[in-house]
Structure formats: C-alpha cells, structure tokens
Amino acid sequence: MKTFPSNKALFLSHVAQNSAFPIGLEVVKADNIYLYGADGQKYIDLISGIAVSTLGHNHPKIVAAVQTQAATHMHVMVYGEFVQSPQVLLAKAISDTLPDPLDNVFFVNSGSEAIEGAMKLAKRYTGRHELIACRQAYHGATQGALSLGSDESFRQGFMPLVPGISYIDFDDEHNLDNITDKFAAVIVETVQGEAGVRIASSSFFQKLRHRCNETGALLVLDEIQCGFGRTGTFWAFEQYGIVPDIIAAAKGMGGACPWGIYLVFRDHECLADQAGSGSYLHLWGASG
Question: What architecture is the 63-276 domain classified under in CATH?
Fold first, then answer.
C-alpha cells in the first residue's frame, strides 16, 4: 500500500523556513484567540501572527466581508486607476481617523512595502538622498527597509544595503542636532517593537517634530505594529501631540489579510500627487 508523506514532512521539504528550528505546529483551524492543532490540542494564540490578528481569528464580520468581495470581484486593474467602491470607502474611513492635513492613502501589501514607499517619496519630494533612522529599530526585511535598521544580526549576509543612512538614539533629545538639511526624512517607530516595546517621551517627539520643521526633513512614523488601536488611541502618535508628514501602517489593519498603507497629505506642492505619479507603481494594492 502506497504511503504519502505527512504535511509536516512536506513542510520541511518544500516550504522555506525562517529559522533553523521552526515551531512546526500543524494548524487545522483557528477561531477567536485559539489555534487548533492536528494533534487535537487547543492552543491560546499569544503571538497573533506577530501583531496581525488584532480582532482574533475567523472574526465573522471579516469572513463575511472577504466572502462578499470575492464573489463580487477581486483584482481588476493596477492600483489607482479604476474606481472601486470598497477601496474608496476604506481610504475615506482611514482618512477620517487622521488629523489635518493627512488625507491621502496609498495602498500596498505589507509594512515593508509601506516603508519602501515612504523612503522613495521622501527622496523625491525633498530632492535629498540621505535618511535618518533610530538605532535598534526594525522597519522590515526588504532591501530598503532593512537598511534603516542598525542590528547587524538582521543585516549580515545582505550587504551592501542602501547607502546614505545615519542613526540617532531613540528617545534621546541630545541626538536631534544630528538631523540637518541634508536629510530627506527621519523615519521612526512611534513605539519601538523589536527593541522591546520601548516608549519615548512626549518631549522627544515634540522636539523631533520641531527639528524636522527646522531642517525641512519629513517626519515618517512607522505605526506598522503600534497603529490601529494597539496603544489605546487609533494612532499611537495621537498621544504625543504631533502630526507626522507620512505614516506607514500594516499588520493589524488587514484583519489577517496582506495589506499595508502609507498615508500622506496634499499640500501646495502636492506631496500626495508625487506619491502616486509612478513613484511606487505596483499591481495588487487593496485590489477589490
């Protein structure tokens, strides 16, 4: 009698793993805060897909919305060309959570892509080529996003990364003088995640905002993990009395769907227009 390899054996043979020792739990079902294994065990999910499933697994409203949209239409055209009602209404709903002048949403598929878009837009808008990030930051694993991190354990094996990146210390006001008019943007996690859920003072963020105003550098806040209600307000930056120039978000916003966004504003120089004018053309952003 012919035998077939187990799912775990196929997983180890054909699915690329992120570590030498993957968890290896075979999940057959997920509901609310629980994962159900092929071993018949029920597990409380304390990871939430690494800050993704903020409303739990198999939420009935999310399931219904996905089913309805899949039966209506899925991908129809490259992002930003056709008028698609769910996309338009989502952009308006997100804009309504934001303070003035932030009012434009550029849809992508992940947090890393949102950061890449913010990096490109900052350079294009300012005409400058250098960026500043914080030490111990994590902004993603794509080439540009990875370049913003200083942790060599993530960077090794991928050098050289994107040049022109400098670093300051998170929540250290004495470092802010290092921000000069040669930088296109300062890119900061509103709450540092990978570094250990580090929270900065209001004074740091207010002085950072002021320094960016002085030098003309755009302030980009990474709310990929801490946004969408995770800190008690819809956006974490609301607690600091500042307004950034660009926001990157993803993870929890998709309810386990692969979505990301970067948020910008339309000023007299049309920052949002520059974001969309071929600077980050891609296929799938918020299709349907």
Answer: 3-Layer(aba) Sandwich (3.40)
